[in-house]
């Protein structure tokens, strides 16, 4: 469960380097390399006091382990998007950490599996127990946190007991919030985080986004921001790691002409200028493409 800590929304990347997507038919799910699509975004709902969670698609429906066979005569069963009147155990997934990855286990012992091979298996997603060594890694998923949640002091986790009356409710700022779990609403205000008007105390305002493995970001959602009084890139990196709950981050800016990411190496802009940054994991594919800084002679 620790890989989902403080997560309000995530992307799940499979062993095949593809993301779990909610199909636009609002019923099925699949895999695709386009991690920047809104369909790759899954809102996390924790179930109070239990090591299980629910994942809600951008269409307001839950990732569901159905009983329907994916293919007749095969063991794999369909994974769907559903919104039942009663939230039952078919919507619940138990995260089991395995190194830097996670396995998502159903209440009945199956695992969320990203299938490979030829059609109709290619890009499909089922729940099953892998019996062959060659497919053991197909149940491993990498978790990319794309939106974090901040709890107010003294606020305790709340259990989501009933489905939303509408799929995903838009607020006046354009961000998405879940009616199911107040604990997981979009980036609640804290001492350093806030939405609305930027803080007016000393320091500079830092707006940031969290990129996926390829450096893509979801521009459909409002940038969170905080007030920063430090002066160096290292201080800013530490602050962003503290606020996001992520480790080994690289702080980047966008090139004004081509929009490509480049890492901040030396100094921050002078005069407490407001900054818009993008953070990526140091182990990401986009980070591997950054040129290494030259060592002084």
From TrEMBL:
CDD domains: beta-trefoil_FSCN_ACP-like (cd23340). Transmembrane segments: none annotated. Residues 171-180 have a biased composition (Polar residues). It holds the Pfam family DUF569. Gene3D superfamilies: 2.80.10.50. Residues 152-205 are annotated as: Disordered. It comes from the Eukaryota. Residues 155-170 have a biased composition (Low complexity). Residues 1-141, 203-280 form the DUF569 domain. InterPro entries: Actin-crosslinking, DUF569, Ubiq_DUF569-assoc. This is Putative Actin cross-linking protein.
